[in-house]
Automatic annotation (TrEMBL):
Name the UniProt record assigns to this protein: Uncharacterized protein
Pfam families, A to Z: DUF8029
InterPro entries found in the cross-reference section: DUF8029
Transmembrane segments: 6-26, 33-52
Keywords, sorted A to Z: Membrane, Transmembrane, Transmembrane helix
Organism: Natronorubrum bangense JCM 10635
Domain of life: Archaea
Length: 60
């Protein structure tokens, strides 16, 4: 499967650049998702703290 890609140096470089681009896009999406999840968790915890129901959570 990888034989046509590794037979030429130019194709090998292009395949490496494509893999790098996919990794960069995936990391950017993961960071955005992590920030959004963190913001939602912060808002939920702040709401629980403000209503006084934070003590009801086990381990808190």
């Amino acid at each position: 499967m990888f034989e046509p890609l590794t037979s030429s140096t130019i194709l090998l470089i292009l395949a490496g650049l494509a893999a790098f681009a996919v990794a960069v896009v995936a990391i950017r999406i993961a960071i955005k998702l992590a920030v959004r999840v963190g913001l939602v968790a912060a808002v939920v915890l702040a709401a629980l703290w403000a209503t006084g129901t934070l003590e009801l959570l086990p381990g808190v």
